[in-house]
C-alpha cells in the first residue's frame, strides 16, 4: 500500500521518489474531460471577488506559500501577502474590504493555522484550504478545499507535499488568470510534464546528491543557502530540511542580503550552497558566491541548463523559471537526507518534532 516503506530504508526517501508521480497525478486530477485545467467554479468566484489574498501557513507549507504568492501575483494579477500563522492571529495587518484567506497545510490540522481560520471566519471573511487530507479540520471548517493528491506523507520532514502544493498553486493561479482574461503565455499542462521529467532525473541522480552531502556537510557545524527571487524561497526550504533532519545549523538568505551582516559568519570552509536557476539574477547570485568564496566559503552552485558555468556542482534540466522550485527543491531534499544519514540521525523521526503541530 501507499503507506508501506517497501524496500525503502526510510519513508522520506520513498516520498522523495514519489514526486514525479505526484506532479503527474495532480495534473490529471485537475483536468476536465477536454484535458483543460479546471478548478471548482465557487473557488474561481472567490478568487475573482478577492481584492487581496492572504496565504496563511507554517513551516514548509509557509515556504510553498511564498512561491504561491509569485504564481498568483505574476499569473493572475491579484495582490497576495504571505503570513506565518502563529504570528498572524496576534498581529493582523490592516485588511482590505474583500480579502480571501488561503490556508496551506499538508495535514490540515496545524493548530496555529486553525486559530487564524476561526478568527477570520468570525470576521466574516472567505477561506480556501489547500491540504493533503480530505476531511481534515482546516478542510472541514473553511469554505472551500483544494486537495494535493500526494498520498499519505509519513516522514516528519515534508517533501512531496511541498512539490504538490506548488503544483496545485500554479494550477489555481493559471486557471484564475484564464477566467480573468489574462494570457499567461505558456501551456501549464505541458510545462508541468517537463517538470515531472526533470524531477525524475533528479531522483535518479542520488549518487551525485550523496557526493555533495559528503563533500560539503559531513563534518560541518553550519551551512548557508543563498539564492535570489524564487531561489531564495527554495533556499529557505533547503535550510529547514537540513536543520530538521541533520541538526546542522542552516540558514537561507537572499543572496544580496548576506553582505549586510551574516557574511561575518563565513569562515574558511563554511559551506554555502547557492541556487542559480533565475536568468534575470544569474550574474547577481554568481557575484554573491564570489563574495563568500573570497572569505573562504566552500561554495556549491546548483544551476539550470542555459545558465550554467564551468565548476557548477549540479546543473538541473531546463524548466519554466516560475516552476523551477519544483525541481531545485529535489537536491535540497536529497542532500539533506544524505547529510542526516551520514551523521546517523533518525531521518524519519527527528528529535523534538511531531508530524503535525496540533497545539499552539
Ligand atoms: C516540514 O518539514 C515540517 N516538519 C513542518 O515545518 C511542517 O511543514 C509544518 O509543521 C506545517 O505542517 P502542515 O503543512 O501540516 O500544516
From TrEMBL:
<comment type="subunit">
    <text>Homodimer.</text>
</comment>
<keyword id="KW-0677">Repeat</keyword>
<dbReference type="GO" id="GO:0006487">
    <property type="term" value="P:protein N-linked glycosylation"/>
</dbReference>
<dbReference type="GO" id="GO:0005975">
    <property type="term" value="P:carbohydrate metabolic process"/>
</dbReference>
<feature type="domain" description="SIS">
    <location>
        <begin position="43"/>
        <end position="182"/>
    </location>
</feature>
<keyword id="KW-0808">Transferase</keyword>
<protein>
    <recommendedName>
        <fullName>Glutamine--fructose-6-phosphate aminotransferase [isomerizing]</fullName>
        <ecNumber>2.6.1.16</ecNumber>
    </recommendedName>
</protein>
<dbReference type="GO" id="GO:0097367">
    <property type="term" value="F:carbohydrate derivative binding"/>
</dbReference>
<keyword id="KW-0315">Glutamine amidotransferase</keyword>
<feature type="domain" description="SIS">
    <location>
        <begin position="212"/>
        <end position="350"/>
    </location>
</feature>
<dbReference type="GO" id="GO:0005829">
    <property type="term" value="C:cytosol"/>
</dbReference>
<comment type="function">
    <text>Catalyzes the first step in hexosamine metabolism, converting fructose-6P into glucosamine-6P using glutamine as a nitrogen source.</text>
</comment>
<keyword id="KW-0963">Cytoplasm</keyword>
<feature type="active site" description="For Fru-6P isomerization activity">
    <location>
        <position position="355"/>
    </location>
</feature>
<keyword id="KW-0032">Aminotransferase</keyword>
<dbReference type="GO" id="GO:0004360">
    <property type="term" value="F:glutamine-fructose-6-phosphate transaminase (isomerizing) activity"/>
</dbReference>
<dbReference type="GO" id="GO:0006047">
    <property type="term" value="P:UDP-N-acetylglucosamine metabolic process"/>
</dbReference>
<dbReference type="GO" id="GO:0006002">
    <property type="term" value="P:fructose 6-phosphate metabolic process"/>
</dbReference>
Amino acid at each position: 500500500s501507499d503507506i508501506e516503506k517497501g524496500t525503502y530504508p526510510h519513508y522520506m526517501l520513498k516520498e522523495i521518489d514519489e514526486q514525479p508521480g505526484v506532479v503527474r497525478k495532480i495534473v490529471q486530477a485537475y483536468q476536465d474531460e477536454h484535458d483543460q485545467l479546471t478548478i471548482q467554479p465557487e473557488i474561481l468566484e472567490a478568487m475573482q471577488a478577492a481584492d487581496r489574498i492572504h496565504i496563511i501557513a507554517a513551516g514548509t507549507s509557509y515556504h510553498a506559500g511564498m512561491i504561491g504568492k509569485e504564481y498568483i501575483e505574476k499569473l493572475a494579477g491579484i495582490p497576495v501577502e504571505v503570513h506565518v500563522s502563529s504570528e498572524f492571529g496576534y498581529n493582523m495587518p490592516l485588511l482590505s474590504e474583500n480579502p480571501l484567506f488561503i490556508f496551506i497545510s499538508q495535514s490540515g490540522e496545524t493548530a496555529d493555522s486553525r486559530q487564524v481560520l476561526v478568527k477570520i471566519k468570525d470576521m466574516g471573511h472567505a477561506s480556501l484550504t489547500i491540504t493533503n487530507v480530505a476531511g481534515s479540520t482546516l478542510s472541514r471548517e473553511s469554505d472551500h478545499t483544494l486537495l494535493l493528491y500526494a498520498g499519505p506523507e509519513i516522514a516528519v520532514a515534508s517533501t512531496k507535499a511541498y512539490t504538490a502544493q506548488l503544483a496545485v498553486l500554479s494550477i489555481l493561479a493559471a486557471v484564475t488568470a484564464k477566467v480573468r482574461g489574462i494570457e499567461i503565455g505558456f501551456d501549464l499542462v505541458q510545462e508541468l510534464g517537463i517538470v515531472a521529467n526533470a524531477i525524475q532525473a533528479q531522483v535518479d541522480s542520488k549518487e551525485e546528491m550523496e557526493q555533495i552531502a559528503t563533500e560539503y556537510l559531513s563534518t560541518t557545524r553550519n551551512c548557508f543557502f543563498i539564492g535570489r527571487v524564487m531561489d531564495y524561497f527554495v533556499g529557505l526550504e533547503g535550510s529547514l530540511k537540513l536543520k530538521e533532519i541533520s541538526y546542522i545549523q542552516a540558514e537561507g538568505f537572499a543572496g544580496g542580503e548576506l553582505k549586510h551582516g551574516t557574511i561575518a559568519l563565513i569562515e574558511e570552509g563554511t559551506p554555502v550552497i547557492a541556487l542559480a536557476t533565475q536568468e534575470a539574477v544569474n550574474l547577481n547570485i554568481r557575484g554573491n558566491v564570489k563574495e563568500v568564496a573570497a572569505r573562504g566559503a566552500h561554495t556549491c552552485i546548483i544551476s539550470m541548463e542555459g545558465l550554467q558555468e564551468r565548476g557548477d556542482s549540479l546543473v538541473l534540466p531546463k524548466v519554466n523559471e516560475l516552476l523551477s522550485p519544483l525541481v531545485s527543491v529535489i537536491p535540497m531534499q536529497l542532500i539533506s537526507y544524505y547529510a542526516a544519514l551520514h551523521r546517523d540521525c533518525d531521518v524519519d523521526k527527528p528529535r523534538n518534532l511531531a508530524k503535525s503541530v496540533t497545539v499552539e
